[in-house]
Amino acid sequence: MTLRDQVNARLKQAMKDKDQDRLGTLRLINAAIKDQAIAQRMNGDDGPGINDAEVLQILGKMTKQRRESVRAYEEAGRIDLAEREQQEIAVIEEFLPRQLSETEIGAAIDEAITATEASSIRDMGKVMGKLKESYTGQMDFGAVGPMVKDRLCAGG
Prior knowledge:
This protein is mostly helical. It has seven helices and no strands. The longest helix is centred in the middle third of the chain and has 24 residues, at 52-75. The chain is globular. It starts with a helix and ends with a helix.
């Protein structure tokens, strides 16, 4: 079952359960996936549609946006809105793979550096590309970037 099918199945279940908060978030996810599919078709890509990797990217982006909103709401003292965003994050994360630990992230970075034969900071794009290809949805690339940079600077 594809991620898109899983979202649709949980959307139907939320309708049956009359869970309005969950339903709203699932509809947002579904809309984002449909928007991406429409954008692909408008760009002339008549392929099989959205694949799971693309759905993971969409979900990762949605999670990141909501985390930024939580931070902004908390700074503004709007705890009620921050909690609502946290609830949306929890629903979105149900579809994301398990997040890697610090140790696993370090090993993945080392593996990507070896696989791309990166030797200096100029190779950072190759390393990040390899990580995104293999670990989309499993790590925060905003936090991983500086770690890659540190390793490449130390090694090069």
